[in-house]
């Protein structure tokens, strides 16, 4: 018979894993973001309609995932990723979390609207390790975008220019 307290604690730990990951992403706290994932994690961006072409694929390896996220998020003035309605399916030491996403990205610019919003779903596959739950696969599905989707490419250009220096 399943232990209801253990199930509640696992679900709360999975909530915390996803919330912590989103806070780290928005704060550009890359060590904290990295800590949520295993080394060979996969991030599936194929269904992100506004992502730069190089990002519309399954990205494998936490170093590559962090580099891609940095190249986009650090170019925005600010971003906020909100996750809601989390439903966890736990099978022993494995879990799949389905949740909704609403994200706002802002960038003051002279090329149109200063914001791009999107909504969709995340599906997060996690595994329990000695140090707690870690993400193995993160799938992103975004059926709608509002605002200026070109801001993603502009953010990448800004991040690249900053990295190149004066």
List the helices and strands and how they pair.
Blueprint: H1 4-27, H2 30-35, E1 37-48, E2 58-60, H3 62-73, E3 78-91, E4 94-106, E5 115-129, E6 132-147, H4 151-164
Describe the overall structure.
- This protein is of the alpha+beta class and 166 residues long.
- The chain has a single domain, classed as Nuclear Transport Factor 2, Chain: A (Roll).
- Helix content is 34%, strand content 44%.
- It contains four helices and six strands; from the N terminus they run ααββαββββα.
- The chain has a six-stranded mixed β-sheet.
- A hairpin with an 8-residue loop joins β4 and β5 (115-129).
- α3 (62-73) crosses α4.
- The longest helix is centred in the N-terminal third of the chain and has 24 residues, at 4-27.
- 22% of the residues are buried.
CATH topology: Nuclear Transport Factor 2, Chain: A
Strand content: 35-45%
Structural class: alpha+beta
Straight-line distance between termini:
63 Å
Anisotropy-based shape: elongated
- The CATH architecture classification is Roll
Strand order of the largest sheet: 2-1-6-5-4-3
Count the beta strands. 6
Measured on Cα atoms, how large is the radius of gyration? Answer: 17 Å
Main β sheet profile: 6 strands, mixed
Topology order in helix (H) and strand (E) letters: HHEEHEEEEH
Q: What percent of residues adopt helix (DSSP H or I)?
A: 25-40%
Q: Would you identify the regions where 5 or more consecutive residues have pLDDT less than 50? A: none
- CATH top level is Alpha Beta
What is the total domain count? 1
Mean pLDDT: 93
Q: Number of DSSP helices?
A: 4
């Amino acid at each position: 018979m399943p232990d209801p307290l253990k199930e509640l604690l696992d679900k709360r730990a999975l909530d915390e894993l996803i919330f912590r990951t989103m806070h780290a992403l928005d704060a550009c706290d890359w060590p904290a973001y990295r800590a949520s994932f295993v080394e060979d994690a996969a991030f599936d961006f194929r269904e992100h309609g506004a992502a730069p072409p190089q990002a519309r694929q399954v990205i494998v390896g936490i170093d590559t995932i962090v580099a891609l996220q940095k190249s986009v998020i650090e170019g925005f003035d600010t971003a906020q990723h909100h996750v809601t309605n989390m439903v966890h399916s736990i099978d022993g030491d494995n879990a799949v979390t389905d949740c909704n996403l609403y994200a706002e990205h802002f960038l003051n610019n002279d090329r149109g609207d200063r914001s791009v919003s999107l909504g969709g779903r995340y599906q997060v596959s996690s595994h329990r390790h000695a140090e707690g739950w870690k993400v193995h696969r993160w799938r992103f599905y975004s059926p709608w975008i509002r605002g200026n989707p070109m801001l993603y490419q502009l953010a990448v250009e800004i991040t690249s220019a900053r990295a190149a220096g004066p």
